[in-house]
Amino acid sequence: MDAVVHNAKHHPIQEMDTTTDSRDYLGHARRDAESKGYDDWLIVDIDAHHVESVSWSEVTSYIEDPVVRHQAMMYQKERIGAPPYGLNGDLGLRYQDVGGRIPHQSSQREKIEEIDVHRDVVLTRRAMHGLALDYMVLFPTPMLFLGMHPQTDMEVFLCNAYNRWLTERIVPGEPGIVSLAVLPFNTPDEALKTVEKMATVDGVIGFCVTSTRYKPVHSNEYMKLYRTIEETGKPIAFHAGYHWQDPSLATCNTFLGMHALGFAWCNIVHMTNWILNGIPERFPQLKSLWVESGLSWVPFLMQRLDDQYLMRQSEAPLLKRMPSEYMAKNCWYPCQPMEKSNIKGVECTFEMINAHSQLLYASDWPHFDFDTPSVIYDLPFLDEKAKRNILGLNAARLFGLNENGP
Amino acid sequence: MEPVRVGAVDEFGDRTKRVVFIGHEEIGVFRLGDEFFAWRNKCPHQGGPVCQGRLYQLVRENLDADMKSHGRVYDDEKLNIVCPWHGLEFDIRTGQHPGTSDLALEPATVQVQAGEIYVLL
After folding, report:
1. d(CA A234, CA A45)
2. For chain B, does the N or the C end have fewer beta carbons within 10 angstroms?
3. Contact at CB, A11 and B19, closer than 8 angstroms
4. How confident is the model over A138-196, as pLDDT tens digits?
């Protein structure tokens, strides 16, 4: 050590926590984006989240029913220690942060200095900057459980209130923020009204059904809804979730096991009913997305349904092709979370789902299993055209977004 | 390979860390007992800022002689750095993920001389 010795510079952020600015939290992603030249790429994040319950007093003020709205506002004002008004779900069973190991999943208490726009706009902007996104589709979080609400009316009240709040308070704050109107799917007539009301609202590029629910998607009561959505030209997305109270998942003693299965299971069930009941044949122009279940379930289900279908075609007489063909041509898949422990398996999956046209990038930020665009960019078997399609151009074509950005 | 001074030994408490810049490289320096370890601040999973995460003891399953589980316990001997992006854990001593040999942190050379800690890249 006889040479001239330099001192290392201390990193200004020694430990990331719930107060760390999202731009710092995602600093490595930003640098990665700059080194890869993402500014020249259209990157569309099909599934990111905000925590709408942080703004729940605002959201509930948009409830149309005057009695329920008043009840909600009084509850929000005076109840202490209670969960947000009207929300059901898993209450204290939310272990996504793995006991504090993943602080951004716990909460985002970073400093917000901007006062010209809503806090959620600022947080979303910061995430978009970090991930180098042109568009981000913003989904709610606790509301993903509304399909299990014991009061179907409450799903209607809260979905409609949220849709209005989001499109009036959040979406206008940043050109790249877009949304899928959340449908109160357990009440088909109301879901239809929501589509009719929201289809032409600025920033609404499609419709969302939260998948955690026991209503069969092929029920006749949904046909008018699907026809109407098809006529809008906008896609319908089934956003997965978990439900630990599901009797089979209740046998899982870990969040890991329950979450791994639950997020795939609900979409496996809905997709099975969707395909075998010939929804793609009844509504050939209806585009469906299957969100946040990862991808590995898709080749499993394709092979499983194909195998059984050949022996029992009489139970699915609407089908004119193999189930896997509908799944690869009529359905789209956001990639998150990218299960990539077996790269040959990933390549096979991409081939089976026609990834060059059907696969979309999704971050799921700020959740614990979020993905940066590098999960696609770094794949060794994709050429640049395929990467550009998956990271943005497929989404632009599907949702009618500007390929040059907002 | 030029040594860069990170700090004095007595500036580090047991089971603490310091994240520094050496040029454009980010390095995490960790103290465990009388030993020091240095790892690059880039998670092998998705490139996250692993050294800027929290320190957690390794978790073990508490099995009895009949292979019955009695829950989980912390291992006082093993300390992990946890990537704040996705929660991947890595042993401070070895840099290895406790659940797979396929994932490990990239090391940097750390030396202690005359009460000072140096990192060499």
Report:
1. 17
2. N
3. yes
4. 999 999 999 999 999 999 999 999 999 999 999 999 999 999 999 999 999 999 999 99
- pLDDT of res. A3: 60
DSSP H helical ranges for A166-212: 188-198
- Chain B residue numbers with beta carbons less than 8 Å from the beta carbon of A1 are 3, 111, 113, 118
What is the pLDDT confidence band of residue A2, given thresholds at 50, 70 and 90? low
Task: Name the DSSP letter for residue A141.
Answer: S
Amino acid sitting at position A384 = E
For residues A323 and A298, the answer to whether their CB atoms sit within 8 Å is no
Distance from CA of B18 to the nearest CA of A (A): 7
Q: Across the interface, do B87 and A102 touch by the CB < 8 Å criterion?
A: yes
Q: Which of A10, A28, A369 sits opposite B86 (nearest CB)?
A: A369
**Superfamily grouping for domain A22-54+93-399:** Metal-dependent hydrolases (3.20.20.140)
* Rounded Cα gap, residues A52 and A194, in angstroms: 19
In CATH, B4-120 is 3.30.360.10: no
**pLDDT by residue (tens digit) across B50-108?**
999 999 999 999 999 999 999 999 999 999 999 999 999 999 999 999 999 999 999 99
Instruction: Give which of A2, A4, A16, A369 to mutate to test B binding, by max B Cβ within 10 Å.
Output: A16
For residue A2, what is the nearest residue in chain B, using CA coordinates?
B3
Residue B48 predicted with pLDDT over 90:
yes
- pLDDT tens for A73-106 read 999 999 988 889 999 988 788 899 999 999 999 9
In degrees and rounded to multiples of 5, residue A29 shows phi and psi of -65, -40
CB pairs below 8 Å between A and B: how many? 88
- Quick check: B47 and A5 CB within 8 A? no
Residues A214-223 have a mean pLDDT of 98
ipTM, 2 dp: 0.96
DSSP assignment of A346-368, as one string?
HHHHHHHTTHHHHEE----TTST
Average pLDDT across chain A, whole number: 97
Do residues A55 and A143 make contact, with C-beta atoms less than 8 angstroms apart? Answer: no
Give B111→chain A minimum CA distance, Å.
Answer: 10
